[in-house]
Design goal:
Layout: H1 5-13, E1 25-29, E2 38-42, H2 43-54, H3 61-70, E3 74-78, H4 89-94, E4 101-106, E5 109-114, H5 115-131
Antiparallel strand pairs: 1-2, 1-3, 2-5, 4-5
Helix pairs in contact: 2-3
């Protein structure tokens, strides 16, 4: 699948080993059975997650589970010369991806969804969240912070 150019620039900027003319590396976290999307992390972003996991107490259940979710259920890869990402069959099957994919950016990560899944599952969550807000509420107000500053 072709990675949008803006996402490729983020992957390049987030790969400390990337040099012009080379292909940026990334890590795709596919997670447990409840996750119905793939999350692509820049190398810097996954290193930040790894550092936070490593800061948890050794032997703690949280550390063990996060190591399994992030290290044991991830796929290191890179963007190819044509700006494409080749997803193994296992990952395509995980999210039931056959044709078109939907990408959503989140800073130094982005998610890959089966378009129909995103449209039904995530849009329903968005609508439910919006329905709990007053009719005239502007979600941009959240950007001002809790004190309205």
């Amino acid at each position: 699948m072709s990675i949008p150019a803006s996402f490729r620039r983020v992957l390049e900027a987030g790969d400390p080993n990337w040099k012009s003319g080379e292909n940026p590396e990334l890590v795709i976290v596919y997670g447990d059975h409840r996750r119905n999307f793939l999350e692509c992390y820049t190398m810097n972003a996954i290193e930040e997650v790894d550092a936070k996991i490593d800061a948890l107490p050794r032997g703690s259940m949280e550390r063990k589970m996060l190591q399994r979710l992030f290290h044991g259920q991830s796929f290191p890869t890179n963007v190819d010369e044509t700006g494409r990402l080749v997803l193994p069959a296992k990952l395509r099957q995980k999210i039931d991806l056959e044709n078109e994919a939907f990408f959503i950016a989140a800073g130094d990560t982005f998610q890959i969804w089966k378009t129909e899944t995103y449209d039904t599952v995530e849009r329903a969550k968005e609508e439910e969240w919006l329905d709990d807000l007053p009719e005239d509420f502007d979600p941009m107000a959240f950007l001002d912070g809790p004190s309205g500053e």
